[in-house]
Design a protein that fits this description.
Blueprint (H helix, E strand, L loop, with lengths): L1 E8 L18 E16 H4 L14 E3 L13 E13 L2 E4 L4 E14 L6 E6 L13 E9 L20 H11 L3 E7 L8 E6 L11 E11 L30 H5 L8 E7 L17 E11 L24
Antiparallel strand pairs: 1-12, 2-3, 2-4, 2-13, 4-5, 4-6, 6-7, 6-8, 7-10, 8-9, 9-11, 10-11, 11-12
Amino acid sequence: MTTFKQTLLAASLAVAAGGAQAVTFGAGSNSIYYNNLENQYRSDAACAAGGCLGAGTGPAGYQLVNPAIAGNVVVGDIFAGILNVQNNNYASGTWMATPTDQFTGYFAQEVTAVGPVGPAAQITFGTVAADPFGILAAGEMFRLYTQSGGGTTLFTDFTAGSTGAVGSVTRVQDVIALATDGVFWGSLGLAAVSPDNFAYAIDDLTAPGTSTTTESFLALTLLTQGPSYNAGPLGLINDVNESIVGGVTGTLLCTAAEIANPAISCAQFVATSEIEKNTHNWLNGDAFSPFLYVSNDPAVISVPEPATLALLGLGLVGLASMRRRAA
């Protein structure tokens, strides 16, 4: 699963004053803390060659990939999971998730290429051809939701509200339902017309997924704005931690020259994440989470404040988390 160690999202936002929103942002630097949960799935047909945990461990047509096998990542594998924003700290205040105020999401990514086996292999991701859980629309990688007031439901890695057997895909589906039962905020993906978008990971394919130190990187576009979207036009930024695909800029915010430079990647959402094993998963025998990978880290965003506009909010990612995970 992924830990979005540094998710950097920048936007110039002009948000009209209005009703309540499930997440708020402030001008300048924002530190977003969130939890991600994720699994790696492979089709039944591909599992016939081995490397999977058996029928019934994934949604229809899929199985969980065995994380104990070194380098167990193949083209077509799908990494799917959920994210929950816990709090956002900024100069003028703090937003905290509560039982009646939350910002959550679902994501899925498909492996499109795997580099030569080694301690620093590159794994490239694209949008899923068909989302195994039926959440994403065509071309999407993340869908984010807000929920406020009575009836708000929270999820945890211990599958609150689940009725399925320990470790079953039913529990995964129950948690996904809790993460996507709010008001649609927006979706993120790889823009078809943007050469600046990417999703990849650098993974040690000589090690099993249970002991990975993978780093993954995202540069995404806001594809769709939902009814609860509370951000204005997003600015273009660069992940200063990533140099293999996106190039390096002096600061997070891209200049006009950097935007015009084909060697520099300037996108609306960028993220650097770290892969971790969920030590509290059912496969370890020490808890009941159906997700084999987890993250819990702060993300950082930088929001420039336009001189002539009131800056009231900023849209988060994807994260993230934003995310994806390589075994």
